[in-house]
Structure prediction request, 85 residues.
Amino acid sequence: MPRLLTPAMITALSAEVLRPALLASLQFASGTVYVWSGLGPIVWSGNTFQGIGTLGTVSTISEASTVEAQGGIDRALRNPCKLAQ
Prediction:
């Protein structure tokens, strides 16, 4: 199904500088959280998205011949602890 561009969208895409943004709605048992890749709140489609800046990132998926977990929490930010026995 083709999607039509509004005149405002065509103008924005023709600009010398483009400012793309990623918007995400994250659904939890406690409710839905709306976040986006910039700073500060923005409203889109009736929902207020809170900016998380560089706290959240999206990267490419790479393939390898082995299976291993990648990403997660930066080792420098981890606080090792031992469980009480």
Q: What stands out?
A: The chain has one helix and four strands. The first helix runs from residue 7 to 14. The radius of gyration is 19 Å.
